[in-house]
Amino acid sequence: MVKHQPLQVYERQLCLSCITGIYGCRWKRYQRSHDDTTKWELLWSFILLFTFFLLLVWFYFWWEAHNDYNEFNWFLYNRSGEWSDGTVPILATTAAGFTYIAFLIVLAFCHIALGQQLNLHWLHKIGVTAALLTTIVGVISVNQTWGQEWDVIPISLQATGPFLHIGALAAITALSWIVAGQVARTEKMVFQIVVVLLYVGVLLALYVVPLYITSPCIMDPSTLKPRPDVIGHQGAPMLAPENTLWSFQRALQMNVTGLETDVAISLDGVPFLMHDRTLRRTTDVEKVFPDRQLDETSHFNWTDLQQLNAGQWFLKYDPFWTVHSLSPHEKDLIANQSVCSLEQLLKLASYHNTTVVFRLRRPPPEHPRYNSWINDTLHAVQQSGVPQSLVMWTPDEHRAQVRQLAPGLIQTSVEKRSPQSLLEYGISRLLLRYNRASTQEIRNFSGSNINLTLYTVNEPWLYSVLWCSGVSSVSSEAPHILKKVPYPIWLMRPDEYCLMWVSADLISFAVVIGIFIFQKYRASGMRSYNPEQIMLSAAVSRSNRDINVMKEKLIFSGQPQ
């Protein structure tokens, strides 16, 4: 028997083929399906969505941690013994992974919008799994080695929260097109209710989120305190080798009000400037004293230290990617820098009438200056001729003795204590990492006449948040960047912010309602189109000749074979 079938002519759908082909390798029409997505594929869709949000947080963390990249590289150096910029591979892989996962998410939403069955290809499943596991390993590693840095997320949200809220609201509002389309097309009442409730719950949560967003920059501009002073942390280490005279001179050119450094005691009792426990990273000790390159810094006498070059490493490793911006003259100055003594720094500060704050590291017990380290340091202060009112003294050991020998020194603590406790000990200044003082604590210290300095503040957004919080001063590795911040990046009155987020909520609500109404109307119009009825009407209106031909076909097809 021969059956006559009408030929079907399909219009090419290049866009749909690309969407289904890239996502699930379904390039042909017969490979695609409008059936419900299987439970297995739904599970992979949830894994993909979870990976996307995890990578989003991971990417945001590293974006905002830019303020502390040098600190991270220093941690890596202490573990590996080799200096390298470890943030570069992390940023590259994070950006690549986030872009890849975000692309798959967009394709998945396109499938849903077009009513196509989700079927993630196995190669993509391997990629998603790799991205998920790599990110989890990264989170665990950071938590173990650099756990304090997680505080940058809530701190940065004080600067970005109001704007991230608007962005999230716009994204969820746009998502209503897909949600409304799904609800309008499906005939399952339970599915409709669940989807609508989930979407409305997320939307309402976003509408009320601003009630819980707190930022010191949402304030009356008339109550803004004076611009915080900037202290050069190790000078200006982005422009010159850290803890060298040229670095401090560059910081002074950026109008800093103070200089901060780290002090060690040499074998013969000379206080000198050095951050690390060894000399390998910031000097050429491997070349001059190859057998002593792993010795602690305090095990060298001052004569040995003066033989070391403390600038060539900066030109070689370019730790802040700034060497290309230096002039040939600056490079020559850097290449000839040597280890700087505390006395040299104090003389420079005295000449410029600039405050100096230093952390004093006690030598190990076997060191000949183990018991005289305080006196050695006080002797260097007195020898320099610097006014005592310009020196911030931080060691807690023998503080009473120091007060008797040098009563004019500014007593400073690096340990977080209550304002009352600090005042009882006669301490008027406090030096803390920026994540160890909340906005309320900053204001409490300010109200108690405790001068609070927070370190290390390199990014304008962080400087702006701390400025709005009322901090007195900050210590920075980038005074040349903060010099360009004459006012907080943004400042908004509470009533202005309230108007902004209420307006955004109302606009979002109106758009969502409009989209749901339009999709319902569009779906009802599609249902009114009945292909079978149209075919029947066309058959009735055909000529008698066509009807006879159809009868002939029916008779022919009904004959036994």
From TrEMBL:
Q: A GO BP term, please?
A: positive regulation of neuron differentiation
Q: Where is the GP-PDE domain?
A: 228-486
Q: How does it sit in the membrane?
A: Multi-pass membrane protein
Entry keyword annotation includes Chloroplast: no
Give any Pfam family that matches.
GDPD
**GO MF annotation list:** glycerophosphodiester phosphodiesterase activity
Q: Which GO terms describe its cellular component?
A: plasma membrane
User: Where in the cell does this protein reside?
Assistant: Membrane
Main location group: membrane
Coiled-coil spans are: none
PROSITE patterns given in the database record: GP_PDE (PS51704), PROKAR_LIPOPROTEIN (PS51257)
Q: Which UniProt keywords apply?
A: Glycoprotein, Hydrolase, Membrane, Transmembrane, Transmembrane helix
Q: Where are the transmembrane segments?
A: 42-63, 90-114, 126-143, 163-183, 190-213, 499-518
- Give the family per the record: Belongs to the glycerophosphoryl diester phosphodiesterase family.
Q: What is this protein called?
A: Glycerophosphodiester phosphodiesterase domain containing 5b
